[in-house]
Design goal:
about 300 residues; alpha/beta; Spore Coat Polysaccharide Biosynthesis Protein SpsA, Chain A; 2 domains; ten-stranded mixed β-sheet; 11 helices
């Protein structure tokens, strides 16, 4: 199998060299690297150019700053491999990752899931998840939804033909682009497999957007989550038997709501009610039935 490794780059001079070296050091060599420089203003471009000749098959795309989603989408358009893999440029992979992934693609699943290690300044934490053999989307998601990282795009590789035939793309201009897309990709697939191999090193940065405490960013993240929820539900409603996916989106919105400050909650409480979020919460067991009732009482929605 040939892998298309898509690497969006934006002002990551501190991390980029390690990311590229981790790919170069991989024991499996049948891959192409697609670097998308999304308008970096630091020394990232210098580092990219210093590494271009080190790879046998590499494509370098330079664009104005349009965001992570745009960079990933551009990379997909240029990809020629059998499987697509997204790698963030401030993270790095294990040297045997591609070899392990290739060895687990014998039945050509639409999606293969693997696991990660959280990397902090002074420690690392392995996130161990239970694997499962190739199955359909519904069976798979009932297991994946119990994972710590559910919709993180870098932890899946996607059969290129499946990805492109379905015209998947990350929505541009929003936070939570993975939340908007990855569950939909899983819901659309016919076959998916998960392995317990930890191949991805996820570098936790205090200054990253998704960890920001800036109020304006928190509000935008909530707005974008509601937008993603609404669009995802519309897509899922056109599919059969996707209640587990709808339940995931509904509960995710409620979790994000409870992370807001008191004043923000007043506004979003009404918006959540208007979107009828509670109707998508599953009641297929006693615990879920009680949870739904409690939420509806808190929001003043009729039971």
């Amino acid at each position: 199998m040939k892998f298309s490794l898509i690497i969006p780059v934006y002002n990551v001079e501190k991390y980029l060299e390690k990311c590229l070296k981790s790919i170069l050091d991989n024991t499996y060599k049948n891959y192409e690297v697609i670097i998308v420089n999304d308008g970096s203003t630091d020394n990232s471009e210098k580092i990219i150019k210093e590494n271009l000749n080190k790879f046998e098959d590499i494509t370098y795309i330079k664009q104005k700053n349009k965001g992570l989603s745009s960079a990933r989408n551009e990379g997909v358009k240029k990809s020629k491999g059998d499987y697509i893999c997204f790698i963030d440029s401030d993270d790095y992979i294990q040297k045997d990752m591609l070899e392990v992934l290739n060895n687990n693609l014998k039945d050509n699943p639409d999606i293969l899931r693997f696991q990660l290690r959280e990397v902090y300044n002074d420690k690392s934490v392995d996130i161990n998840e239970i694997s499962f053999n190739t199955t359909n989307s519904n069976n798979a998601f009932s297991k994946i939804v119990k994972y710590k990282y559910i919709e993180m795009s870098q932890l899946y590789i996607y059969k290129a033909s499946f990805y492109k035939e379905n015209n998947f793309s990350f929505k541009e201009g929003i936070y939570h682009e993975d939340f908007a897309l990855i569950p939909i990709i899983i819901a659309s697939c016919k076959s998916i497999k998960s392995i317990d191999y930890i191949g991805y090193n996820y570098v936790i940065r205090d200054g990253s957007i998704m960890r920001s405490n800036d109020k304006n960013k928190i509000i935008k993240k909530m707005d974008d989550s509601l937008l993603a929820f609404n669009q995802a539900i519309q897509i899922l409603n056109k599919m059969e038997n996707k209640d587990e996916f709808k339940n995931f989106y509904a509960n995710s919105i409620l979790d994000k709501y409870y992370s807001l400050d008191k004043n923000s909650k007043k506004e979003y409480k009404e918006r959540i009610k208007k979107l009828n979020v509670f109707s998508y919460m599953s009641t297929n067991n006693f615990k879920r039935k009680i949870k739904k009732i409690i939420y509806k009482i808190k929001f003043g929605v009729g039971i």
